[in-house]
Amino acid sequence: xxxxxxxxxxxxxxxxxxxxxxxxxxxxxxxxxxxxxxxxxxxxxxxxxxxxxxxxxxxxxxxxxxxxxxxxxxxxxxxxxxxxxxxxxxxxxxxxxxxxxxxxxxxxxxxxxxxxxxxxxxxxxxxxxxxxxxxxxxxxxxxxxxxxxxxxxxxxxxxxxxxxxxxxxxxxxxxxxxxxxxxxxxxxxxxxxxxxxxxxxxxxxxxxxxxxxxxxxxx
Length: 219
Known about the structure:
By secondary structure, this protein is α/β, with parallel strands linked by helices. The chain has eleven helices and six strands.
């Protein structure tokens, strides 16, 4: 039997290793990896992938950019593994063709998730499904949410996927050092990204940042 050809676009080397280790335990799997959307498009796979695993919060072009271009071929299948929990990112991924969206922490269920997708199914983490349902109910009960105002329309600049990811990690209690280790980047880079978040949210303190984020539904 030919091995299942799986592609992975992930910029965190530690998480990439964990991901490949889980996949290789299943046997009969061949893996190709890229650390950015740009590298994926510059050196595409020579054979058609059976499944593409994508991180949303990539440097440069985002995972959403990848999905939009990748799914110009209808038969392709993809799975998002992300720490991003904002409704707009989740909806954008699904609308861009993703067959599934699960949290990065759910590696234990990854083999079953992949099998379901390869068999033609779709997989969404229960907590994500709940967010989708609640968002749908909110749009039904509050017509203003259907038309919606963008964050920029409400005096906010739009945060990038990486900035949203950092913001969510901060809300979960992670400090800049932990975030830098998670992303495999420098502490100075993370601190500069946090300063950018402050500026975009028009706040001066961490408490103000979290209040503003909740107010505008960023997480």
